[in-house]
Design a protein that fits this description.
The complex is a heterodimer of chains A (292) and B (199).
Chain A (H helix, E strand, L loop, with lengths): L2 H9 L6 H7 L3 H18 L8 H12 L6 H41 L3 H26 L2 H28 L7 H28 L9 H15 L9 H18 L15 E2 L2 E6 L4 H5 L1
Antiparallel strand pairs in A: 1-2
Chain B lengths: L4 H11 L2 H23 L2 H21 L10 H20 L16 H4 L5 H9 L2 H10 L3 H12 L4 H8 L3 H21 L3 H5 L1
Helix pairs in contact in B: 1-2, 2-3, 2-4, 2-8, 3-4, 8-10, 9-10
Classes of the chains: A mainly alpha (292), B mainly alpha (199).
């Protein structure tokens, strides 16, 4: 301990080894400091004692005479009860929330999840319905710009598969018809008609369009849109005639839109071809003419 | 016959002896109140804190909470409660602002801020009574030094007990006390307060 710190316990009478104090005070600097500290201590010791207000003492003695804060025990008991009730409530709410979150979800998953048998049946039926599913899958998953390109490709792929199925059905006409083969055989006439319609559409597209009427496909699209509106709302897959007609219209639109460009100059509507008569009259029709 | 603090506490707790408790309070009231008054420098506030301290003491003794362990240090135990009451109050009033003993924001030491021996100090000293002068300079000490000085002089706790109470080492407590006394001594010499200097 520092000598200058060590003299403090001696100064305040906490160390009563006078020999040690005498040894410490042999140092002149320590002796000077001891005198300075003793003078300050003497001044502090002369301070008069201070006492609290007698009224404060009376209140303290009064409190000491009566049991202190008897109301604390019931309050503590009540607080314990409230704490217990709050804990039970929190537990019940937690359990309720847990049940509400997990039980309905698990039961829903059990109800909606396909069973293994159902999955197997679905795979067995897949070849018969693969073509439309594939086309729809292509168009639904692709982005908007890719959809327009993917749709005809899927249709072509569909047609190719149907043609192949038809040829295979002809080759296997003597074989016993399985479930898959029956489906393929039923698709054969459809495939033949699809191929014929493709030929027609290709020829139609290769025919020169009227000069300066490259935008006629737009009006044709409008006409087809009107036809689509008039078409039956829900087509069944066995309505081959309607399906072929729609397919042909789509191919025609594709062929005509191939020559379109975004930067072509604007043309008046009057010079555009009549969508109802692509090879003949031009321009807009009057209302009366349209009614006729 | 001089009864120790422990005997008085035992008499109050086991036999409900009100006189024993009264004797305890009267024996230590000056120490405890002197410390509290030195800390807050306001008599009415010191009265409130004194009452609050003894209500806490009674509550703890009767409910055996935080209890005094009868190790012959009842005063130190009560002083811990008094100190907590004072610090609670000072914290709530935000008056307990530590003063950096070395350098503050503008680079000036606390000691540089103490008044020198110029004429302004002489005028101030002349207006003050000796007691008030000393109290004012005790109040001007850094809080850590002031607390150690008050605990040692008012409550008569030993330096070791002060170190335990304030949670510092004994050397730190001694160092704070040394600086407090030297600072007061320097002020006495500077103010030419002959009565204080010479005793």
């Amino acid at each position: 301990m520092d000598k200058k710190l060590h003299i403090l316990p001696h100064l305040y009478g906490e160390a009563d080894e006078l020999a040690e104090l005498a040894r410490l005070l042999e140092d002149e600097a320590v002796r000077r400091e001891f005198k300075a500290l003793a003078a300050a201590k003497a001044a502090l010791d002369r301070r008069p004692p201070v006492r609290p207000d007698p009224a404060v003492l009376d209140r303290i003695f009064e409190a000491a005479a009566t049991p202190v804060r008897q109301d604390r025990a019931p309050m503590a008991r009540r607080a314990r009860m409230m704490r217990l009730v709050a804990s039970v409530c929190v537990l019940v709410i937690a359990v309720g929330v847990g049940l509400w979150q997990f039980l309905p979800a698990s039961s829903f998953e059990r109800a909606s999840a396909p069973s293994a048998d159902q999955a197997t049946d679905f795979r067995a039926e897949a070849p018969a319905s693969a073509e439309p599913l594939m086309a729809m899958k292509e168009t639904e998953s692709a982005p908007a710009s890719a959809k327009r390109e993917a749709a005809p490709l899927a249709v072509e792929e569909n047609n190719a598969m149907a043609s192949k199925a038809a040829s295979e059905a002809v080759e296997k006409d003597n074989a016993s018809p399985s479930r898959q083969e029956v489906g393929q055989a039923a698709a054969a006439p459809v495939a033949a008609r699809v191929a014929a319609s493709r030929e027609e559409a290709r020829a139609d597209a290769e025919a020169p369009a009227p000069q300066g009427f490259a935008d006629d496909a737009v009006l044709a699209a409008g006409a087809f849109a009107g036809e689509e509106a008039a078409a039956p709302e829900s087509l069944a897959w066995d309505e081959s005639d309607e399906l072929l007609r729609l397919h042909r219209q789509i191919e025609l639109l594709e062929a005509r839109s191939a020559a379109l460009a975004w930067d072509e100059p604007v043309r008046p509507l009057e010079v555009l071809p009549d969508p109802n008569n692509l090879g003949g009259r031009r321009g807009l029709q009057t209302t009366t003419g349209r009614k006729q | 016959m001089h009864l120790s603090d422990d005997h008085l506490v035992q008499a109050y707790l086991e036999r409900g002896d009100q006189r024993a408790f009264r004797l305890l309070v009267e024996r230590h009231q000056e120490r405890i109140y002197g410390y509290l008054l030195g800390m807050v420098r306001d008599r009415s506030l010191a009265d409130d804190l004194f009452q609050e301290t003894f209500l806490r003491v009674l509550n703890a003794m009767q409910q055996r909470r935080g209890a005094y362990q009868r190790q012959g240090r009842w005063l130190a135990w009560v002083m811990r409660i008094a100190r907590n009451a004072a610090l609670d109050h000072l914290r709530s009033r935000k008056k307990w602002q530590d003063v950096d003993a070395n350098f503050d924001e503008d680079g000036a030491s606390y000691w540089d801020r103490l008044p020198d021996d110029g004429p302004a100090v002489d005028d101030a000293v002349a207006r003050m009574e000796e007691h008030d002068w000393l109290e004012a300079h005790i109040e001007g000490l850094p809080p850590e030094q002031r607390e150690v000085l008050l605990l040692r002089h008012e409550t008569d706790l030993t330096f070791r007990e002060i170190a335990e109470l304030t949670g510092v080492s004994i050397n730190t407590a001694l160092g704070r006390m040394r600086y407090a006394l030297l600072n007061l001594r320097r002020e006495m010499s500077a103010s030419k307060k002959k009565q204080l200097v010479d005793g």
